[in-house]
Amino acid sequence: DAKTTQPPSMDCAEGRAANLPCNHSTISGNEYVYWYRQIHSQGPQYIIHGLKNNETNEMASLIITEDRKSSTLILPHATLRDTAVYYCIVSISNSGYALNFGKGTSLLVTP
Amino acid sequence: EPEVTQTPSHQVTQMGQEVILRCVPISNHLYFYWYRQILGQKVEFLVSFYNNEISEKSEIFDDQFSVERPDGSNFTLKIRSTKLEDSAMYFCASSEPGLAGVETQYFGPGTRLLVL
Description:
The complex is a heterodimer.
Chain A: E1 9-13, E2 18-23, E3 31-38, E4 45-50, E5 55-56, E6 61-64, E7 70-75, E8 84-92, E9 105-110
Parallel strand pairs in A: 1-9
Antiparallel strand pairs in A: 2-7, 3-4, 3-8, 5-6, 6-7, 8-9
Chain B: E1 5-7, E2 10-13, E3 19-24, E4 31-37, E5 44-50, E6 53-57, E7 65-68, E8 75-79, E9 88-95, E10 106-107, E11 111-115
Parallel strand pairs in B: 2-11
Antiparallel strand pairs in B: 1-3, 3-8, 4-5, 4-9, 5-6, 7-8, 9-10, 9-11
């Protein structure tokens, strides 16, 4: 799997957009970008994934650069409950394939 | 909304004892996983399981570990002779094949194992 690089920590004010970057410069053509988060030692929670197009769901938006070497997860209106560790994972999308969690970005949403 | 459940939530055991961690995956899912997270460290993949066979396993998943789907609903992880370094949070996950092979893994709340 391609390696990802994320900042170790970020802050965001409640109600503002949180933009979490991820570099994956060695991503290959058949690898997807997945985002998961982990709230205080709970089980990781799926957020969103994408291949090359931008994606949006009820939780977040994912912006992938045209060369696919980096991406940004956007939480449009961060709340205190979005305080968590956010993981950017690059993986081929075969069923049964392991997710390779790195250290992620610890996002702190402040009042 | 369907979810993965795990029991027990906490387990304390003596070094050298056997433990079995239990998971009930989401009912229509076909792929099952175990991950672990040692306190303060990253989530690590242990094993994936499909059609009553191990699909993939990591270097961590040595002969001390085994997995089983004893019936149509449970998925278990057994550690035969626990070591101090097995103390961790163990997460079960499940998934189903999605469109174009894209799948999402859904995680349970975890079992915190403490080996004394």
